[in-house]
Design goal:
Layout (H helix, E strand, L loop, with lengths): L1 H13 L8 H11 L4 H28 L6 H17 L4 H11 L7 H29 L6 H22 L15 H25 L5 H15 L11 H11 L5 H43 L1
Helix pairs in contact: 1-11, 2-11, 3-4, 3-6, 3-8, 3-11, 4-5, 4-11, 5-6, 6-7, 6-8, 6-9, 8-9, 8-11, 9-10, 10-11
Length: about 300
């Protein structure tokens, strides 16, 4: 029964890929996904849960550096609300939702500016982690070196922002950069999130019997980050699967097997995102009801 549910979820995710790939290849990929080992898919889901909690932790840390304090469960709820929006709305609109929700934690009038700066700090921390990942992939001969130039540029800009922030305390956009030592926990959360996504990519490949799945995952993650720079579809449907299929081509994996891995990866990621989104709705429901009661009594 669980396998049938998983295959149904995968088929639903695959609907968005049809405009990108030939129908016969998509059919082959869906058939291949139907043979996936459900134990590995559940392992991928567990890895995605770790990655999502760590990503929420990075937001909590960055916003905390900007003056906002909250618990990890509350941060997961705010992050999950953004995941829910990203599932159905293109252009990563969920990030705007996260900025809006996390900004409520910052105790001054320029809270949106501070939270946007915290979002930039998260991007810089991700760039630091990706430098190590891309370098490892380049050493293995699986990833080109040119993305390192872009990532290094982001890190240099972040370092400059941290230096500028210490000299100009009135700039709330740079609040999250003001204490360089406080950026270390942020990088730690980002490392944990990246390890979780790496595990999800590897186990999704292993579920389909792809050879050297953990080596293949090194190729997948940089490709996904590059594909995510311009998310034209809700939840990056189609783009994610295509990026994984093209990346795995370099690993000598057939296109339809790579596409199947991409569909499986995206389906599990979407399912976990929806799980956190529903949990966020439940988490915020009491506050919404209380606000409604207070409004009705005024």
């Amino acid at each position: 029964m669980l396998k049938k549910i998983a295959i149904g979820t995968v088929a639903a995710a695959a609907m968005g890929v049809g405009g990108f790939f030939a129908r016969h290849r998509l059919g082959e990929a869906i058939h291949t996904v139907g043979t996936a080992d459900p134990n590995w898919l559940f392992a991928a889901a567990a890895c995605f849960i770790v990655a999502t909690v760590a990503a929420a932790g990075s937001w909590r840390c960055a916003v905390g550096n900007a003056g906002g304090e909250t618990s990890l469960p509350d941060a997961c709820a705010r992050y999950g609300a953004g995941s829910l929006v990203n599932t159905f709305v293109p252009f990563r609109a969920g990030d705007a939702v996260r900025i809006a929700l996390f900004s409520r934690l910052v105790p001054h009038r320029q809270r949106v500016r501070s939270t946007t700066g915290a979002f930039a700090a998260i991007g810089a921390a991700r760039a630091v982690v990706l430098i190590a990942l891309v370098a490892a992939g380049a050493v293995a001969g699986a990833v080109p070196l040119w993305p390192l130039l872009i990532l290094a540029g982001i890190v240099v800009i972040a370092a400059g922002a941290a230096f500028f922030a210490r000299k100009h305390e009135e700039s709330h956009f740079l609040d999250a950069f003001r204490n360089p030592r406080a950026l270390a926990p942020l990088i730690g959360w980002m490392i944990l999130s990246t390890v979780g996504r790496y595990g999800a990519a590897a186990t999704a490949c292993a579920a389909l019997g792809i050879k050297d799945a953990f080596a293949a995952a090194i190729i997948i993650l940089p490709a996904l980050d590059l594909a995510g720079l311009l998310p034209l579809t809700p939840g990056n449907v189609g783009t994610t699967s295509g990026a994984i299929a093209v990346a795995l081509k370099a690993h000598h994996v057939s296109f339809h097997a790579g596409l199947a891995a991409g569909i499986a990866f995206h389906a599990v990621e979407t399912a976990v995102g929806l799980l956190f989104g529903v949990a966020a709705a439940v988490w915020f429901a009491p506050a919404v009801r209380l606000r409604g009661r207070l409004t009705s009594t005024v």
